[in-house]
Design a protein that fits this description.
The structure is a single chain. The protein is built from 11 helices and 5 strands, in the order αααααααααββαβββα. The chain has helices at 8-18, 22-29, 33-40, 48-54, 60-64, 88-92, 97-104, 108-115, 124-130, 172-178, 215-226; strands at residues 158-161, 164-168, 180-186, 192-201, 207-209. The chain starts with 7 loop residues before the first helix and ends with a helix. The relative contact order is 0.10.
Length: 227
């Protein structure tokens, strides 16, 4: 187990096994003890159905992200989600599913089955692909506003977008109004490059990342550079 990656959810289950509490915990929540044990050990892969049935106890993000990764979203549980219902993200992008397919490298038929005909359900592989830019909570509710998760980044914040970090220059009000943000690029050492400025789309809102930087000084330097 030490030689391979585990998710935050697996880590929780393994801790319950070590404490000899998994069976009791499964009984309390009406979960299949044998299945949960196999998932904890990496012998089974959690399905979207299982994530829907457990999202009131284990945050969806914890099923998706590995412990060596930073979760760039607020980790929270939500009421159990009916796996047969169409989630917010799929409904929201039914009309522009081809754009989403292109952006995430999905096959046309798979994208159609996922966003239009609903013959294909999200699975762990797809969720891991999407959550690079999409808060996983959007796959377990029908109205994102219920969880107040449509939060546009503000100036001075750092966002993760297409697996790259960007320093936000423009204000939250501007970003919400235009669905875009003016940003500075950042290198692999989290250093902000005030000379490399671009605009990114916020049609898919990226998650913010907590990084120790002097945002006020950087914003001042950017303003001086642009003046």
């Amino acid at each position: 187990m030490k030689d391979r990656k585990i998710t935050y959810a697996q880590e929780k289950l393994l801790r319950l096994i070590e404490e000899r509490q998994l069976k009791k915990w499964c009984f309390q929540h009406n979960y299949d003890h044998t299945l949960m044990h196999k998932i904890a050990k990496g012998e089974r892969i959690p399905t979207y159905r299982l994530m829907c049935e457990t999202c009131d106890v284990i945050s969806p993000a914890e099923w998706i992200y590995f412990t060596e990764e930073e979760i760039p979203y607020t980790v929270q549980t939500v009421p159990k989600w009916d796996v047969n219902q169409v989630c917010y993200f799929l409904k929201e992008h039914k009309a522009d599913y081809m754009q989403i397919a292109k952006q995430f490298g999905l096959e046309k038929n798979d994208a159609y089955s996922l966003f239009v005909s609903y013959r294909l359900r999200p699975n762990l592989k797809l969720l891991r692909l999407f959550v690079k830019q999409i808060n996983p909570i959007y796959f377990f509710c029908d109205k994102a506003e219920l969880y107040d998760k449509i939060v546009y980044p503000d100036s001075g914040e750092v966002v993760l977008f297409n697996e790259k970090k960007y320093f936000i220059i423009t204000s939250k009000e501007n970003n919400k109004k235009t669905k875009t943000a003016v940003v500075c690029t950042m290198d692999e050492n989290d250093k902000v490059n005030i000379h490399d400025i671009k605009t990114i789309s916020l049609s898919l809102i990226p998650g913010t990342v907590e990084i120790k930087i002097n945002k006020n000084k950087i914003l001042k330097d950017v303003r001086e550079y642009l003046s």
